[in-house]
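QA checklist item 7 of 12: single-chain prediction sanity check.
[x] sequence parsed
[x] length recorded as 373
[x] structure emitted
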Amino acid sequence: MFYKLYPRDQIKNYLLIDIILTVFLCYRVFNSDTALGLWGTLLVLLLFLASFYVALWRRGGWLLAAALSGLSAIAVFGVYAGPSTMMFGIIFADLLGRSKSKGHIAIGSAAIALSYLLVFVIRQEPLLETSNAIYLPVMIIQSVYPIVIYIKEKAKSLQGELDEANEQIAKYIQQEERQRIARDLHDTLGQTLMMIKMKSELATKWVDKDPSQAKRELGEILDTTRTALKQVRELVSDMKFISLASELEHSAKLLHTAGIALTIENPEKPPLLSSVEETMLALCVREAMTNIIKHSRAKRCTVKLETKDHAFVIHIADDGVGLAGHGGGNGIPSILERMKTLGGSSAIDPSPQGGTKVSLKLPLRRHEKEDAS
């Protein structure tokens, strides 16, 4: 029931102050012997309380009208009970500051100053004389106060919007992080587990025919599982630096296991790349190789690295069944997304050899290579 009398969201900051000011105002006007009399005083006080209640709950034009009405009631008390009652105008100065209209705030601030001037004119007391000197700075403070409150409320609103935006960004980052982890699991562990599967199939074939060969295959499976464990640790501790050269070397081993011959053409020294750029390119190469092993049914694969037109370009071509032979899966979107993140481009087209050709193009920028850690 009480929350219908006073807004719940303002209880903590304003309720006690409003009660204290209202009690002091009532005491001040009833303790003064004025020409208003008891009923006149009660009528003006009722106007003040009604205006305060409306201004407390309403905004827009209703707030302005209530504030002007309340200031008028205080001005009447100022004329009959003395200028000191004008100090209670701070109540409506504060409420005016919560208006969303700059025009209403300007009108209210002007009304506060005007009410002071009218009280002193009607009472025929100079505002600037020594006994009344305190009222000029009080008038200025009350006139400026709505503007201060408006700026404060605006800042609070903007902070709320900023907090909401930050919350949305945090959710987006979490979603992106989940997608990154899923993508890295697919790109990294998927390739390693596929190699374990292939090695296991080979070991099964050799176990009766050539136990020594089967033992070698099992040894390679053990080495690969260690690699998988290492990759899991790297994913848990965030993405680590991946050398393009080491990734090509690893890809050559995988392709060899799958029965695919790999040729690497690197006629010149690769350009200086940042750790992020080299890692992202290595992951793109890894994804392309995974697709070749899983889907292409190719016999040969060629990787060509070249620097051309201020860009580092990697061409990966196979002689397999081509794009019509499989769906894109997670691989192609991952390649496109990574290259877009780097500000580069990628193209996936039919290869002249009859398979698929993946082209990765990274514009070169002047930077120092970061230390991989």
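[x] summary fact logged: The radius of gyration is 39 Å.
[ ] second reviewer sign-off
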